[in-house]
Amino acid sequence: MLLTRDHQRPKMVPIIIFHQYLIEKMKNNFRYLLNYCFNELPRKDKADIEKQMLTDDMTFDVICGINTARRKLGSKEAVERHFSQTAENVRKKLFNKDT
Amino acid sequence: MEKRVLEGLLRKALLEEDRDKFFTLLFEKFSKRVIAMSWDYLGATTQQSDCEDILMEVFCKLMKKPLDYFEVERLPEIGGLIKKTTMFIILDRFQDLKKHSTSEIGKDLVEKLENEAWADTQTEYSDYLRFLLEHLSPTKREVFEMRLQGFSHDEIAAFMGITSETSRFHLSSAIKKLKKIIDDATNAGSSET
Known about the structure:
The complex is a heterodimer of chains A (99) and B (193).
Chain A lengths: L12 H25 L5 H13 L1 H17 L2 H23 L1
Helix pairs in contact in A: 1-3, 2-3, 3-4
Chain B lengths: L2 H13 L3 H24 L5 H16 L14 H23 L3 H17 L6 H7 L4 H11 L4 H8 L3 H29 L1
Helix pairs in contact in B: 1-2, 2-3, 2-4, 3-4, 4-5, 7-9, 8-9
């Protein structure tokens, strides 16, 4: 696993920290968008997300993806579980390729 | 009663905070519709009393909410709210059927209800996006909204009788137009300051 070989690659340490920071940031953003899709945000925050969605293609795609999963799975918990599982699988696949 | 007249009366009752009048008007207008929906979903074996029970449950649920839950700006959508509440109550009644019944008809009904309940609880837009969407043509708006609600381009194409390429074209031009409106508004705001 490239990112956890810090004893072999001391230079990578800041990248790992940055990587973890990015993952946390993405998770928070994802939860925020998930709340938007399930109508659990106040109106002002909704407007902010909609503005972001129209100016940033990735946000738009994430919202479409969440809503697609929502149509198929129904509940918020099921959608969250599905995406965390998918992310975990992708991570495993990537790390296995590296090693 | 005409829709606009009803909206006016409901608005007046809300502004005067007249709870009794508000719910009486709602009941007069929507009770038949709730009964009809119950008949429709519960099927031919239903009795009148079952439908009336559902009607009572719907209005009890609505009346438990504070009056400021019904915002004046959202009065045009009140029919949707009542439809959604009715569906969830019918769905609750069928949860046991789903768990215990082996009847395929019952399962189909539950599935249909769940799908329709989903359709009524899809992501709601803020007034900001609603205002922006008014600038789009009906086709572009429909493609944009369907895509945002998670339909694929193939599904949109099949639903609207167009090709998936046309659907993609409509979506990208809708986004371009909305971006332009946002940019123009931002530029106008910065030039004023």
